[in-house]
Each structure stands twice: as structure tokens, then as C-alpha cells.
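writing this on my phone so excuse typos. first protein, seq and then structure
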Amino acid sequence: MGEAIRMRDKGVQFKQLQPGQQIQVDLKNTVPKFCQNKIGQLTEMGVKEHTCGCELFIPAVKVYTLSALLSPTGQELTAQQPVLVCKQCGELLK
């Protein structure tokens, strides 16, 4: 995000997406994301810590409840946030 701000400050123009418009990205120019969660594994020598390293993530939804006292409508509200969970260790993608 900071790079985009620096580029905008230098005068680089960014296209605005129209509703429903999709971005075409060549995956050859991307870097894969791996789970960075530290996992402890029990061995004969003790506990060995290593990074999970899994590259598969499952979409999930975090659910939040807003108290009626804080809600602008005066009624309890429920909000959702999409997240990705590591398929191997179950940690949220950071």
C-alpha cells in the first residue's frame, strides 16, 4: 500500500475499476504465500519448532456481534469478515 502512495505522489495515474470489472493478473509475476505459523513437533531430542509452510488455505468467515447499546439502530447487529485459514494447521493467514 505504501508503494502505491509513493507512486501516486510521483504523478503515476491509476485506473479506477468500474463495478463488476475484473482485473486480469498473470500468475507468473506473483509470489506464492505460505503459512508462517510456528509449529512445535515432539522428537526424541525434545521439541523441534518449524514453520508450517502449507500453501493451501480454506475460506472462512469471522462473525462479530455489536451490542444494541453501541449500535446506531438500537438493535443488536451482526457483522462478518472473510478470512483464510491454513488447511494444515488451522491458523488464520496473516
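second protein below, same order as before
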Amino acid sequence: MKRKTLGQMVVVVFLIVVGLMLIPMPGFAQDTKETTDNKPERLITMAVEYPGVEVVVAETVNMNLIFHNKGKSDENVNVWVAQKPDNWKVTIKTYKYTITGMHVPAGEDKTLTFEAEPNKEVKPGKYEFQVEAQTPDGQFKMAQTITATVKEKVKEEAKESKGVKLSTTYPVLRGPTDAKFEFSIDVNSELNDDAVFDLLAQGPQDWEINFKPAYESKYISSLQVKGNQSKSVSVELKPATEAKAGEYPIKVRASAGDAKGEIDLMIVLTGTYGLDAGTTSGLLSLEAKQGKPANMSIYVRNTGSAPNNEIKFMTFKPENWKVEFKPEKLDKLEPGELKQVEVIITPYAEALVGDYSVGVEIQGEKASKTLEFRTTVKASATWGWIGIGIIVVVIAGLSGLFRWLGRR
């Protein structure tokens, strides 16, 4: 009996434990479910990071546009600048693209960058920008106003850096237009507390400029630096495609509250080198007679962004052929400049009738272009008359032979 009673007690205790495990924990599973159930099917909002800012003359306004998707459904959002003052260039972009629309998954936030760059005509005063967005079906429409107060530069701002210093070992980089350039900048904080420094770069129009953490590939717009310590950041630049050879200044700034610092950098573009050549008709064939010159007119164009000097011509031709150029060389071709050259091809006097290949290589300073001409050699007219004469003689001989045989 005691064993039976003990077994019943064990069973009862086991059932109580299992029952407790099956009871949902308050404030966990139920709350999570209720939180999900309480979300609306669709709800998306837009906010600007700083609705009102103060900048000095010629300074670019740069901030985040934040989209919150508080609903259960993913949303596509179209976004645009509905209103902007004159003499301002305004873009909405990511680190890589100019944006007109974006996808925001349910329950997530997405951020875009609003950038307004003034030109030289912008004077001190208040300027308003209106950013609008909506879902493609028009169910959600959003609008935000950004007010930028432009102030005159004061003498204190022209003094040395305050609270932060920027430095680099190589402030000048040199290379071709189609290269990528990267500066390594040390941001040295002189503040006692940790600070997040906003990063800004001003460079030539249509250049792509981005900040990256040292030894990383992602792009950033701010950098956290501990008090009285320094941190490195990379500035990556890609020149505009049409940028010509020359010197291009770049200004980099870092700021956190009243702490501001800047550094001047320089990129020296040597330009790109490229040559193109051909004929206006696109045909690279001509006819010539044995021992007689035949002319072909070609153009030579500088397709690079740097001048091309001392352009010479080389040929690959059949044995005993002659190829000449007028002019014999081109001293200089500026970017985009085109010049005409006469190519004179003279076949060997005893060349057989048929097609021949003549190669011409145009050699520039750091670029070259090769053309191949198909030259068809035709028999001289003299040989034609000789052939006709032989035929006449043969016919006359045969006629005489037939007459002589007929008399017999």
C-alpha cells in the first residue's frame, strides 16, 4: 500500500510541474503577441534629423531623412524635393546614389541623406526647403520643412581649429583622371569628453567624395572619438569623368558642437591618355596599281583628358612596298582635338594582282591606335592593252592559217 501511495504522489507532483510549464508567462509571450496584434496593417512616417540649422555662407546643409515603417506591411516610398530656394543645389541620396524612391521593410527604419549646396549667389538669410514623400498608391503622404539660416562668417571662425585638429601625412596626391584617390586623416580630439564628429568634404562639382573608417569599406558621415584621443578616417575621392588635368583643392571639416577643425588637401590630375583614328566613312580599303601611289585620308583624335605629344606613325607592310604620311608626325593634340593625315601607299612594281594588308600604328605619348588597310592591287592599263594586242595577233594568225589551208 505504501508503494502504491508513493507512486500516486509522484504522479500528482509530475502533473503539477507539467501544468505550470504549460501556463504562459505573463509579460512575455502574451505581451509579444499583443504588441504584434496592436500594430496597424500599414503605417509609415518621415522625419528630418534637424528641422532647423544655422550655417555660414558657402557651407553645405547635410542631414538625415528618417523613414519609420510602424506597420505590418513592407512599403515603397517615393521621395522628392517639392520646394527649394534659388541658387541652391539640392539632392536626396545614399552614400552612392541619388534617390527618388526606396523600400522600407515592415518594422524597420531607413535613412536617406538630404544635401543642399549653395552657390556663390547665396547671401545671409533664411531659406526653406520642402521635402515630400508618399506611397505609390497615395495612401500615405508626408511632408517636412527644413529651415536653414545662413549667417555671415565671423572673424573667430577664421582662426585656428578649436577643440579638434585634422592632420595627414600626404596632403597632395597625384594620378590620372580615371583613378580613385584616398587620403588618410587623423582626427585628434582635444575635448575631455567623448564626442561624435560630423564629417564634411567640399570638392569640385560632380566628384564623388566619401568617408570610410580606417581599414574598412563601408561609408560613414560621422566619427566617434574618445576624449583627448585620435582616430583615423579615410577620404575616398573619384574625379568626374570629364575632369581635365590640373590641380583640384579639397577641404575636409570635422565638427562636434563648438569644436571645429579643417584641413586642406590637393589632388593633381595628370589626365587620361587615349587616341582614336579612322576614316570618315568607316571604310579601311583602297585600290592601287603596281608601282603607283594610292591615297587614303584618316583622322587622328585625342580621346583623353591630357594633351598627347609627339604622335608618330609606324607601318607593317608587304616587302618592297612604300607607305608615307603627310604630315610625318603630329607635334601635339589637345584633349578632344582632331587632325587629318594623308596615308600614301605605293605597291611594289612587280606585285601580283590581289588583296594585301597594310597595318598603320599611331603611337602617342601613353596611348596608341592600330588601323589595318585592305589594299587591292589591280593590273596596270598597259598590260591590258598588251593583252588585247596579243589577242588581235592570235586572231590574225589563225585567220591567215585558215586561208592558207583553204587554198590547198
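The longest strand covers residues 141-151. thats all i got for now
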